[in-house]
Design brief:
By secondary structure, this protein is α+β, with helices and mostly antiparallel strands. It has two domains: about 5-75, Arc Repressor Mutant, subunit A (Orthogonal Bundle); about 80-135. Helix content is about 50%, strand content about 15%. The protein has helices at about 5-40, 45-60, 65-75, 105-120; strands at about 80-90, 95-100, 130-135. The protein has a three-stranded antiparallel β-sheet with strand order 2-1-3, covered by helices on one side. A hairpin with a 5-residue loop joins β1 (about 80-90) and β2 (about 95-100).
C-alpha cells in the first residue's frame, strides 16, 4: 500500500483528542483554583476541593497540574486571579452585568467581554447597538 502513512492517521486523531483534553483540563484547573481560593487548600478540610479533585482524577488529569492549580490559589504560584465585574447598558437600555475570574483584566475586557458583545451584536441591528462598560460595581443596578 504505497502512500499509506499510519502516523499521519494517528497524528490527526491525536491532535483532536489533545485539544479536547486541554479544554477539559483548563476548566478543571479553574475549578480547582476557585475551590482552593474559597476555602482551605487542604482537600481533607475542603469538601468542594475534594470533589473537584475527584473530577480531575476521573478525567486523568496529571497530579502535577492539580497541585500547580492548588498552589497558585494558595499564593505559592505566580499569577493572582481576581474576580472582576463589568456593568453597563446594552441595546434598548438593557442592563448588563458580566462577572469574570481573571488573571489579566485587560485581556478579559478586550477579548472575552468584547467577544460576548459581538455575539449580542449579531442579534441586534448595528445602529441600535451601543454599550458602555464600567469596571467594578459603580452602577449596582
Amino acid at each position: 500500500m504505497s502512500g499509506h502513512s499510519k502516523w499521519h492517521n494517528i497524528q490527526g486523531r491525536k491532535n483532536a483528542q489533545d485539544a479536547k483534553r486541554g479544554k477539559i483540563f483548563q476548566k478543571i484547573s479553574r475549578d480547582l483554583y476557585q475551590a482552593a481560593k474559597a476555602g482551605d487548600p487542604d482537600p481533607e478540610n475542603n469538601p468542594q476541593l475534594r470533589l473537584v479533585m475527584e473530577k480531575a482524577r476521573a478525567a486523568n488529569m496529571p497530579k502535577d497540574n492539580v497541585q500547580r492549580a492548588i498552589d497558585k490559589a494558595s499564593g505559592v504560584g505566580g499569577a493572582k486571579f481576581e474576580e472582576i465585574t463589568y456593568e453597563g447598558y446594552g441595546p434598548g437600555g438593557t442592563a448588563i452585568m458580566v462577572s469574570a475570574l481573571t488573571d489579566n483584566k485587560n485581556r478579559t475586557a478586550a477579548a472575552d467581554v468584547q467577544h460576548l458583545l459581538i455575539m449580542v451584536d449579531h442579534l441586534v441591528p448595528m445602529d441600535q447597538f451601543h454599550i458602555c462598560l464600567i469596571v467594578k460595581a459603580t452602577l449596582s443596578f
